[in-house]
Amino acid sequence: MNFGFTAEQEELGKRIGAFAEERVAPHRRENDRRGAYHPELIGDMAEAGLFALRVPEAYGGLGLDAVSAGIALEKLAAADLSVCFPVLNAALIGGVLAASGAPEQLERWLPPIARGEALVALALTEPGHGTDAAGIGMRAEPDGDGWILSGEKTSIMVTAYATHALVFARTGGEGAHGISAFYVRVDGEHVRKERLTDLGCRSGGRGRLLFDGLRVGPQDLVGAVGGGFAAVMRGFGVSRALIALMAIGVADAALAAAYAHASERTAFGQPISRFQSVVFPLVEHTTLMHAARLVCFEALWRADEGEDPRIPSNMAKWWAPKAAVEAVHQALLTLGHQGWSEDGPVAQRLRDVIGLQLADGTAAATKLTVARLLLGKEHAP
Fold first, then answer.
1. In angstroms, rounded to a whole number, what is the distance separating the alpha carbons of residues 211 and 202?
2. What is the pLDDT of residue 129?
3. In the prediction, which pLDDT does 234 show?
4. Which fold has domain 7-117?
5. Which of 117, 129, 161, 188 has its CA 20 to 30 A from that of 39?
6. How many angstroms separate the CA atoms of 156 and 152, rounded?
7. pLDDT the model gives residue 139
8. Contact by Cβ (8 Å): 86, 161
9. Phi and psi for 61 in degrees, rounded to 5?
10. CATH superfamily of domain region 121-226
11. Which residues form the Acyl-CoA oxidase/dehydrogenase middle domain (predicted)?
């Protein structure tokens, strides 16, 4: 059993870590205040190959494995969680397209994603359908050899920046098999964007996409009619572990700030790190983060080996964000008034990481997945 990364993966981690420290971290607070990425960020990330991680080499990508994508996102999240979402979307949607698209579609779709020219959003959630994703109501009405998309998608990360989206709409009857997927432009007429005001990840561009008679053709259909829901569910087997690693990256950065503060701050004539009441809680959270990280990378390793990653991936998704929120909260308490201040190193991280308890499935949804995989649907909730 090998718990180490390959030499190539270690080098990737060092490269992305250095990039994040130099080009991302200095802008974290300003991005949060402005509610937008600084103007050079997307170009910088494209140049660093962050949108190309999971795109096959044949289409201009790096063709990296899932473990490598996890390494990159964990490093990026430690610098600024908000900037992870276009990278995560490129990995998830690029993988769904690569697995489902025809060769001529992939030639058209994937190279712009790898180059950072197409910024992609996942348009699944609706105002009345979040966890119950198989019940979405937005319809794709038949129109000649194509369809007309009308309706609303909401809580969509990267809405403010997206040029394209993977949109799920109902082409058939009720249930998962009535849902199809379309890859479409969302920066033209017949699509309106509205920003949402959020507690955290304020520069991530979460919002609504409102479709008003957007026509799509067979060239925009991803895979088979009625195959859209299954395609994205397969992608979640990897993306949920990636999101969990993003949470761990945030928590580790906050804990590092807390350890540094505890070593430097003195009280009663000695560093407060000498007091068990200060340092033991930090050690407990560091232990939990370490354990959660192992579950994440187990899931990604299983995906790379062609095994089913869903049990460890969904375990990681319900546990790691919850544990990360608690770890960042403890870091804030350790820093005292400096932690409470928005000018300090932790308050924003706490606001940001809370959102990962919702992204790509709540704790209840992911626990349900694990229960059904362990017990079978006939014996699970």
1. 24
2. 83
3. 83
4. Butyryl-Coa Dehydrogenase, subunit A; domain 1 (1.10.540)
5. 188
6. 11
7. 94
8. yes
9. -95, -175
10. Butyryl-CoA Dehydrogenase, subunit A, domain 2 (2.40.110.10)
11. 121-212
DSSP for 165-183 reads EEEEEE-SSSSGGGEEEEE
Helix (H) or strand (E) run with residue 150 in it: strand 146-156
Determine the residue type at 271. Answer: P
3-state secondary structure of 209: strand
Q: Which two tokens stand for residue 37?
A: 């990425």
Give the model's pLDDT for residue 243: 98
In angstroms, the CA 44 to CA 64 distance is 19
Structure tokens, 278: 């200060």
Are the C-beta atoms of 37 and 29 separated by less than 8 Å?
Answer: no
If you classify domain 229-375 with CATH, what class do you get? mainly alpha
Sequence-separated (6 or more) residues with CB below 8 Å from residue 95: 54, 235, 238
Q: Which residue has the tokens 């979402």?
A: 85
Which portions of the chain are predicted below pLDDT 50? none
What amino acid occupies position 166?
A: L
pLDDT of 232: 80
Q: What is the pLDDT of residue 309?
A: 97
Euclidean distance between CA atoms 273 and 279, whole angstroms: 6
**Domain ranges across the chain:** 7-117, 121-226, 229-375
DSSP 345: S
Count of CA atoms in the C-beta half-sphere (13 A) of 248 = 29
Beta-carbon neighbour count of residue 336 at 10 Å? Answer: 13
